[in-house]
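Hey team,

Filing this mostly as a record. A colleague (T.K.) asked me to run one chain through the structure pipeline before their review meeting, and I want the input and output archived in the tracker in case anyone asks later how it was produced. No errors, nothing strange. Just documentation.

Input sequence:
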Amino acid sequence: MASVPSQSSPQAVPHEQVVIIGAGAAGLTAGIYTARANLSPVILAGLQPGGQMTITTDVENYPGFANVIQGPWLMTEMQSQAENVGARVIYDIVTAVDASSRPFVLSLDSGGQMTADTIILATGAQARWLGLESEQAFNGRGVSACATCDGFFYKGREVAVIGGGNTAVEEALYLANICEKVTLVHRRDTLRAEQIMQDRLLRNEKIEVLWNRQVAEVLGDDGGVSGLRLASTVGEAELEIAVHGMFVAIGHDPATAAFARVVDLDDEGYILAEKGGTRTSVSGIFAAGDCVDKIYRQAVTAAGMGCMAALDAERWLGEQE
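Output structure:
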């Protein structure tokens, strides 16, 4: 008699106490703290392990380093530290989260699933860029999306800020305290920033506004940015200006699309967390870093929030037991 082929049982879905989604400063710090609390966290690294710091070259404002360090190196060290204390990094992307029952169920881009008692969302945000080839070519060599991060490198020099909202005006005012001259380039003839911010900007003698202009090309050489070629949005002739740096301030996009129907988001897509904490609208799900914070957006504040989320998650797990 022929033998009946055995049917293999379905593969068990792995279960974790803590799953951290995102491997930037917030996610890796959360991994360090939850690992040291003996929670054996899994960090799902996603599309950009290391977050925005991996596209940042010179870092001079992260505490603990007397000399300038490189952003990618800092994130590699953070990941090594997290792994050394017991965190596990998995290079996969979360495509969906089912928070309708416990434990939470995470679907992965690889086709698998895992369950978790608690989740820390640390997926970050990405700066919007102009989309120019020359902008990409000079990224990190005179083109930046963070004045607070990189403004000091242009002390006493001339720079341009691109944009017309609150972020652009704030960046221009910040840079005016450092740079010799700041040119704000805006494609319209009015700013979208709050009136009080506009008044401060227009009163500042170190800031010039170029209306109805947009960047057509970033100019420079091996030494970095030397100027901008500006097109007119109202049919005037092109204009070239000499600057040593260009700061793009046209907004950020938080990486939260996969969680839109899981936790509450604001009208810009940022995760809403309790004031002064990291708890989201769903009990057991916490959020940290630039996917929550649209004000500071610094590696050090993201790391601080990652620590907070880890402590909140640890306390929450203790309460469930």
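Quick notes for T.K.: The CA atoms of residues 62 and 300 lie 6 Å apart. The chain has seven helices and 19 strands.
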